[in-house]
Design brief:
mainly alpha, 4-stranded antiparallel β-sheet, 4 strands, globular
Length: 497
């Protein structure tokens, strides 16, 4: 990084120099020395080592703009030889590239555009910068630049501006977690206006800076819980406090590793605490919690609860209406592959709605609510597929319709095997030979589709939709048969007859 230090904040530079001479302990000692010199800071609970006085690293708007922009210009303002090779592939020659970069980095308009983006997105990296300057999303691996990311968050009238560098990256992640932690301890919580984003970055940096700690998951949960307990005790009630508690619930759920007691306890106390406050739960927050409880009930095989939460999420299209907002705040919570209404053969784990229907249908069957299962298949295309749904709704069991259902299944298979409808016959042949082999990429798809198709068959059988039942049974045996799954269906039917 050599000469870049003139762009670092004093405190960053001093900590970095100390760190380079020894290690993180040295930097921690320096923090302790600084803390002892502070007079007007709150008590430091030492949850994440020693905190840092925010006045050492928060800066005003002008300074934040200058630091961020001049750092970006220093590292990204010219195309390196390696970078130019990438531009060449897009037919952008060196003169054009450097003219555009200059026009961006040496004009007031460029600076304003840059800051607007950074202010709106909170982070900027080389890829986003190229999109800003050239209006192109480059579908390519970027060469690794010395400067990886610039981060910016506003706290009342001041800014946290922080760089992540490639060299000594675990130090820069460590320092970022320190700053966020220090803001939690020393600043009013109301100033955290983008809580989900900053906590997402905090979590990522915790992961990066504790590379050597085997158990990141437990460590992170413990630190998070301690911070939140501290904040709960010492900070007044506000929207950010509620968001922090929700973030805690989602984090514990995502990192739960199969034990959901804590998550359920957090939800119970959260609902009790916030129900009657001026920040009562919004519809979106209720949907978020119902979604988590739906999946916990499924993992714990509590069918009545799955049905209760599943129906709540489907009623008035609640999950559908709030999914985008939930995805924006918690990017990993909802599996978000595009839904495929024409397909019945797919991995039902990969889209939150398809997954909801598959899980709900499974529990309707387990709880012997077959009529509800049939209603689900009639009312929601994604619970089966377009052709099956049309048959049920229009009571159309003509031979053309049944042939069309099979044709659709063959198309599904071709897309799973070769991602193309060019040679459907060959793809289907390849599928039939291989779908039971655990090492083929579509093995999981076959397992998931088989379980779901068998639940559809159970519902059709009990509700006496025999024409469709027979056709789907024939399709199942031809394309999806998995012996141990099928054996269970045989037992089910013989118990019924």
């Amino acid at each position: 990084m050599g000469g870049s230090n003139f762009m670092l904040l004093d405190c960053d530079e001093q900590l970095f120099m100390t760190y380079k001479q020894g290690n993180v302990e040295g930097a921690e000692n320096l923090l302790t020395t600084w803390l002892e010199a502070e007079v007007d800071l709150q008590e430091d609970p030492k949850i994440l080592g020693t905190s840092l006085s925010p006045k050492r690293f928060l800066v005003n708007e002008e300074m934040a703009m200058n630091i961020a922009f001049s750092t970006a210009r220093k590292y990204w303002g010219r195309a390196s030889t390696e970078m130019q090779m990438y531009f060449d592939k897009y037919g952008l020659d060196a003169k054009f590239v450097n003219d555009r970069l200059n026009a961006f980095f040496y004009t007031q308009k460029g600076k304003e555009t840059f800051f607007e983006q950074l202010f709106a997105q909170h982070t900027i990296d080389l890829e986003r910068l190229i999109w800003l300057v050239f209006g192109k999303r480059m579908q390519m691996e970027m060469p690794v630049n010395e400067l990886q990311t610039i981060m910016l968050y506003k706290f009342q009238d001041e800014y946290l501006v922080h760089m992540m560098y490639k060299e000594h990256s675990s130090f820069w992640h460590w320092l970022f977690t320190k700053k966020v932690y220090s803001l939690f301890i020393h600043r009013p919580l109301e100033q955290f206006t983008f809580l989900y984003e900053i906590m997402g970055h905090f979590e990522d940096s915790m992961k990066m800076s504790c590379e050597h700690v085997d158990n990141f998951v437990n460590n992170y949960k413990v630190i998070l819980d301690k911070c939140i307990t501290h904040v709960d005790k010492n900070k007044s009630s506000c929207l950010a406090k509620k968001q922090l508690r929700l973030y805690q619930i989602v984090t514990h759920y995502c990192l739960s590793e199969g034990d959901y007691h804590r998550v359920k306890d957090f939800i119970t106390s959260f609902e009790a605490e916030w129900r009657y406050s001026m920040y009562a739960l919004t519809e979106k927050e209720k949907v978020l919690i119902a979604y988590i409880l739906f999946h916990i009930a499924n993992r714990e095989q509590q069918s009545e609860k799955v049905i209760y939460y599943g129906e709540y999420l489907l009623e008035d299209e609640r999950l559908n209406n709030y999914a985008i907002e939930i995805l924006l705040e918690y990017k990993d919570l909802l599996p978000n592959r595009k839904p495929t209404p024409p397909a019945i053969i797919k991995n039902y784990q990969l889209n939150y709605l398809e997954n909801l229907y598959a899980v709900l249908l499974d529990h309707y069957v387990k709880a012997t609510h077959y009529e509800d299962g049939l209603l689900l298949l009639k009312e929601h295309v994604l619970a089966s597929n377009k052709k099956i749904n049309t048959s049920l709704v229009q009571k159309n069991y003509s031979s053309e319709q049944l042939i069309a259902i099979e044709a659709y299944v063959q198309q599904d298979i071709a897309l799973q095997v070769n991602n193309s409808l060019q040679h459907i016959g060959l793809s289907v042949e390849e599928w039939r030979q291989n779908y039971r082999q655990p090492d083929v990429p579509y093995y999981i798809v076959a397992q998931s589709a088989s379980l779901h198709m068998l639940n559809i068959l159970r519902v059709l059988f009990v509700t006496e939709q025999f024409e469709l039942f027979e056709k789907l049974m024939e399709i199942y045996k031809k394309y999806l048969l998995i012996d141990d799954h099928f054996e269970k269906l045989r037992v089910f039917i013989s118990a019924y007859v």
